[in-house]
Fold this sequence. Notes:
The chain has 554 residues and is of the alpha+beta class. The protein has 19 helices and eleven strands. Among the domains are: 68 residues, no CATH class; 107 residues, no CATH class. A four-stranded antiparallel sheet has the order 6-7-8-9, with helices on one face. The longest helix is centred in the middle third of the chain and has 28 residues. 11% of the residues are buried.
Amino acid sequence: MFACARSGKSKSNSRNAFKKHPISKTNCGARVNVVLCTDGRWRVTLVHHEHNHELSPGKSRFYKNNRVIAPFVKRRLEMNDLAGCALISSEDTKTFTWFYNTWLECMGDRPPYAIVTDQAKAMQNAIENVFPNTRHRWCLWHIMKKMPEKLGGYKQYELIKSAMEGVVYDSLSILEFEESWIMFTEKYNLHKNDWLDGLYIERHRWVLVFVKDIFWAGMSTTQRSESMNAFFDGYVNSKTTLKQFVEQYENALRSKVEKECQADFNSFNSRLPCITHYEIEKQFQEIYTTAKFKEFQNELTGKIYCDVLSIKEDGGLVVYEILEDKIGGKDRQKTFIVSFKQSDCNVKCNCRLFEFRGILCRHSIVVFIQQKVKIVPERYNSSSMEKRYKEVSQNEKFDRMCIAFYQVADLATGDGDEDTTKHVMKWIEQLRVDLHKVKEARENNEPSSVLASQVHVSSTTGDSNLNVKESGIVHSPLALRRRGRAPFKRMQPMVEQVVQKKKENEKEKEKKKKRRKTKTDDHIVSDLNPEKVDIISLDGAIASVVVPSGASTG
């Protein structure tokens, strides 16, 4: 039986009911059954094509038996590593302005919605000039890590540090922050600290309560692992110049893309089991990636620390007061206000976790369960975290074509035949000319029938080696003999080894019979003078036969 890799059922071995391990088995029934007959032949008894899960051939490279770098990919990586980069030699406002303008041009004049930087004044000035409508925020982790340097000289440093973290992280409204900041500076006599004064003036750029009104894709930077600095770990450090940063950026980006692809494959190939029987959890299990579903489950389990203090109803609006007695895993209490609109199931919590990170908070989950909501509205299914199929972008199309062309180039140059290379280059040149005609036709608003007739594959530019037909259909190139040692044979199942051994024994018996027959008939052909005649078949294959001298070879 040849069965789908996701057949059968998985059993979670995790002892912690709140920390499940991903499972890949879906009890898929797709399979092919074959039976070995007594005459040594195989008979197909069952074929079931239907899978009960999504299929994605593009992710096949993540399976263990496909983790081999193709020659054209290896060559491309080597070329990227050899390429130099000399972009910026200074880090002033003028240089950053040029840099951001160049970046904007590369992005088709589409500025970013939001941007996070450190406190560099040169970058801030350039961003205000080039991206006037972009939301600019400072890296909170970068600011908080400076506390030992800026406040370490105070005798009550540990108390100051704890108090400042409470003001910055725990304030749920702007008014609450303003009042807490004043009390904080007065209590520890910090009115004359220039660093704190500068931070307060620019508070709208870094304090969480000022920036949580828009989506930041989880870049809360409350700890280093959540900071964008973690993206560059191992590639850049605090002493890296901008020039060096640009040189290392491609390497860091390549690593991140590969990790994202691997995570996408893991989400596609397996999923985390639900830890409750709530329909809401099943809903997010279907649409979230594994990583985001873990975040949701963390909020779902966090609801056990939440109690409803009061419920006020005004028309169709219900306001909940929810007390959470474990904040950040510590014995701290905080009251949150959650409003619920019954007409459209719209929920809003003043912790603003959903607005900031795209994940429903535990307080909102409590309200949904209290209101007997089984399926939440689609607006809470953040599209950036879904694992549904996304429309292929222009960049992805470009990459797919590049891979295809790399494969053709690798095959065409594999045997060192210059003629094959020339034929491929002629074909590419003809294709380039045809595509240019299509572009001109589009610009002239010609009908689609004219566009379709522009692209064709000329039979004069190729031959049978390229496997191009006059119909215009480009077939896969013929496989070329690779240099080097032949690949090892795959491991055979026991049943297949028995069958193979049986066939070999039968062939050996046939050879012995032929040898005995040849010895018996030797006296018949001993007086003949055989000669070798090469006969060329219609398909180009060469067959050698032996005929007696003077006999007809017709």
